[in-house]
Amino acid sequence: MKFLLSAISLLAFLAWAAARIALGIQFNIGCNDYISQAASSPDPSIAAQRLDAAISYADAHNLTSGNTGIFFTFPKNDVGFWYKRLTDSRAILRALPPGDAPLEVSNTLMRVRETLVEGGKDGDAVVSPSGISAFPDNAAFFWWGAVSFFALLLFTALAAVESDPF
Description:
Layout: H1 2-40, H2 44-60, H3 79-94, H4 102-116, E1 117-120, E2 123-126, H5 138-162
Antiparallel strand pairs: 1-2
Helix pairs in contact: 1-2, 1-4, 1-5, 2-3, 3-4
């Protein structure tokens, strides 16, 4: 029986891992990659279009307010602030007149890039709250992963003790 419970716990944990990976990929494809393209675009109209796609994804997945924190609500995990940065960046790009001076366009694009991307020791990365790909179900995913992992450990240890020939 303990082997069966251990196997079920393993399957639950693997399903959790697969779900988290799938959500991360979906978020990267539907939102994060568009933000990255907007930040690196040399053309304000293309950058605004890319932000439109990212904002549409955020709207469709209710990523407009809240906090991704589970036990504590840290400011760095504020979804509303992140969403406002996206919409404000798009507004800045759209406010540029079509025939504006190249220096003004360049300065605006740099400002938008600094808002959307931050540099780190591994290179540039899009700024977004940690765990946003699972939002608003972060707590459910946390408990699913934690319970299945600890159940796996417990039932595997009990099965090992039960089958110990010594």
